[in-house]
Structure prediction request, 251 residues.
Amino acid sequence: MHGWRVVLMVLALVAGAVRIAEAAEAPKQVRLASERWEDYTNADGSGMAWDILRKVFEPAGVRVQVLSVPYSRAVGLVKRGEADAWVGSYHEESSDYLYPRWHFDTDHIYALGLLGKPPLTRDNLGQFKLSWVRGYDYQRYLPHVGEYREVQRREGILPMLERGRVDFYIDAQTEVDYVLGQAGDAERGKFRRTHIAELPLYLAFGKTDKGRALKDIFDQRMTALVASGELRAIFAQWQQPYPFGEAGKHP
Prediction:
């Protein structure tokens, strides 16, 4: 019996050493979960965000695996350890995740409303009934927010605005354009877009050893890429403003 205990102890020590070695080994893959945003995070792996993130990770020997799921599910996959990070988080959106020092892009936030509504500004947001997609939590990032309503999906926004259920719908520029595209040519002129904010976009990593290692790799690579200006070509290719330095400020 004593001999078996020694064997079991040795096996346990070996298994522990293997786990430590695996944890210490640099990650070879990063599983990134994201909602599908057209020409940004397409399900087939194409799009500006995927181009940026491959440029960040793959020269460091970390292959990018794309997981295309709804926004709330992307968050849940990381929490359950089924993905390493989710794409498009605002800063410190949740304390359940690890946030790097660097963002990788900036969200251009717009409000969509009827042309006849008074002009919307960051200072008078509290005077209007606002709406956005559930989970985006713009009340945390925009000043003076008062009454707001969360919706499950982007279909049906225009009738909601026309019937006065809300005054303005708030979302990223591409998503506002998607909603406005649901209107016919004759109706499109009834609506107005207003730029109201720029919000940095982050990867939110899982609180695991691998997540910490990937976060460090991300920050190291972003520091080098911003210093060298190598990311400029990707933003230029997709005709988007460069978000690092004076050239990246929204006009």
Residues 5-15, 17-23, 247-251 have pLDDT under 50 and may be disordered. The chain has two domains: 2-105+200-248, 108-198. Residues 2-105+200-248 form a domain with the D-Maltodextrin-Binding Protein; domain 2 fold (CATH 3.40.190.10). Residues 31 and 84 are 5 Å apart (CA to CA).
